[in-house]
Design brief:
Strand order of the largest sheet: 2-3-4-1-5
Structural class: alpha/beta
Strand content: 5-15%
Radius of gyration: 25 Å
Number of helices: 16
Order of helices and strands: HEHEHEHEHEHEHHEHHHHHHHH
Number of strands: 7
Largest sheet: 5 strands, parallel
Shape: elongated
Length: 326
Amino acid sequence: MSPASRDGGPPAPLQLVVGEEELLGERAVEDIVRRVRSDDPEAELRRLRTSEVAPGELAGHLSPSLFAEGRVIVLTAAQDATKDMVAAIAEYAADPAPGIVLVAQHAGGAKGKAVVDTLRKAGAETTTCNRISRPDERADFVRAEVRRHGGSITADAVPVLIEAVGSDLRELASAASQLVADTGGRIDEQEVRRYHRGRAESTGFAVADATIAGDRVKALEALRWALVLGTPHVLIADALADAVRTLAKVGSAGRGDPNRLAGELGMPPWKIRKAQGQVRSWRPESLAVAVAATAQVNADVKGVAADPEYALERAVVAVLDAREMR
């Protein structure tokens, strides 16, 4: 099916939504239902858990009515389909009924892959909803959410919002929506900190910024507050490591126009500009020590250390001490 059809036209009678990201999967189903109802406002929606419906029951749900009412049948957790259910889906997919859209939601992976293969072979329109796990993907999601609600967000505000809210997509989506409503649509770092005061000031980024700046008291205080507020150990370690790596990369690149260096270093100009101001207080040998300390704490918080909180404090102190090396 063409992109234009996917965006605005009626959906194909067979739909496959694949991937672990639940929020994106739910939105994909909502979009399919919206497209059906834009053509048939009275179309009925039926959600069936695959493991709780028998093949014969499914056939009944997929049978055309006497009055040809539109219908969307959503099979959730399609990875739990039995062989008999896969056979029933294959039989229906070979000759879909008019006015009915069958949507199979599959978590991805090897389990129940026969459902995915069957529907793809039958020409199902497929929407992929892979897990968002990388920082850059999460940042893209935040920017897209803000645009979705008619707003804009500055580059430096995105990581602050993620650190303040966390990695859960539902919470990020809710925060983005609320910020657009509260700020009139123009979101910058100051606005994020104002609306998420406390959390935004006690996150991994706050710890990293104070540590890189050499502010021992503020760094250790920010770390204590981040831990009290439940900021995941991994996020604090990642923020510290990212800050040190950024200094090392910018320092090795030498002085230059941040806009020109952005493509070469793979980071936004604002981040390079900030690092250029910070790296002047660091020697190459000091950065090497700091890089080693942050690499160690990343391993420590992922299971190597018995006490991840102590490991984080030790890493912060090690980076602070490295900065003061002469």
